[in-house]
């Protein structure tokens, strides 16, 4: 869920969404729309629907410090998706043919 008081309009959440359901609200200039299915799925112990619906299991969602996420980070090549002039992201992308000049970790 977007905390509108803290959103700086960096667009990380917008670029992370594979279904492009997030956008910067043109009036408020903060991210809007997707809340990672907070009430309908997360609070019931299920991942966001985009994670469950992905036919290639290409999405992984969870706390960065969880054993599942830490195991994935230890066993895969990835890079941090970084926009210029914005703080450290918590968005990891797998290295693959879509990478064009990204910084690989």
- In DSSP terms (H or I, runs of 4 or more residues), the helix count works out at 3
Unreliable segments (pLDDT under 50, ≥5 consecutive)? none
Question: What is the makeup of the main sheet?
Answer: 2 strands, antiparallel
The portion of residues assigned to helices is: 10-25%
Task: Report strand %.
Answer: 5-15%
Structural class: alpha+beta
Order of helices and strands: HEEHHEE
Radius of gyration using CA atoms only: 15 Å
Q: If you average the pLDDT, what whole number results?
A: 81
Q: If strands are numbered along the chain, what order do they take across the biggest sheet?
A: 1-2
Total beta strand runs: 4
Principal-axes shape call: globular
- Separation, N- and C-terminal Cα atoms: 28 Å
What do you see in this structure?
With 105 residues, the protein is α+β, with helices and mostly antiparallel strands. 18% of the residues lie in helices and 10% in strands. Strands 1-2 form a two-stranded antiparallel sheet. Strands 3-4 form a two-stranded antiparallel ribbon. The longest helix is centred in the C-terminal third of the chain and has 9 residues, at 67-75. It starts with 11 loop residues before the first helix and ends in an 11-residue tail after the last strand. The mean pLDDT is 81.
